[in-house]
Specification:
Layout (H helix, E strand, L loop, with lengths): L1 H17 L4 H8 L3 H8 L7 H9 L12 H6 L2
Helix pairs in contact: 2-3, 2-4
Pfam families: HTH_3
GO molecular function, one term: DNA binding
Protein name: Transcriptional regulator
């Protein structure tokens, strides 16, 4: 689970930089607080999904379910 949070945080940071936005600019455009953007980019494990979607929406993206290999999940591989 932790690696997915890291992937998300790296993805958000990359998108922000590709769009030449500072953290304060991203927060303002997404309608979230600067602290939230910082927590998101640092991979905080307890974030509100609606706020994450507010940020992702700026990049034409959204959170959603991703199919997983159930056998790997059950065997902790």
């Amino acid at each position: 689970m932790r690696e997915n949070l890291t992937d998300l945080s790296k993805h958000i940071k990359l998108k922000r930089k590709q769009n030449k936005l500072t953290q304060p600019e991203l927060a303002l455009k997404a309608g979230v607080g600067l602290r939230f953007v910082r927590d998101l980019e640092q991979g905080k494990s307890t974030l509100r999904m609606d706020k994450v979607n507010d940020v992702l929406r700026l990049f034409g993206e959204t959170l959603g379910p991703i199919p997983m290999d159930r056998e790997k999940l059950l065997t902790n591989e």
